[in-house]
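Margin note: ligand = FE2/S2 (inorganic) cluster.
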Amino acid sequence: MSKKIVCRCEDVTEEDILKAIDEGYTDFEELRKKLRIGMGTCQGRTCIMLALRILARKTGKSIEEIEKPSFRPPVVPITLGSLAGEEDED
Ligand code: FES
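Resulting structure:
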């Protein structure tokens, strides 16, 4: 069986998510913290929605029923120079 990668940054597969749900992690925030979904360098740009869909499908809920994670800035990657107050040269 081929591995279906859900979170490339943290190397989380669909199987990992399904196993965690079977263990009782049916709250998305708990699931996210257990598997580190969305905590990689891309900050969950691609994986959070995929993981939400898997959780919804497995628990029989709609995505709207599942409490979404809170996003903390910076959601968009910024340079260290920007943090240091350097002017952009663009
Ligand atoms: S793919 Fe999940 S944090 Fe980047």
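Strands lie at 5-7, 12-13.
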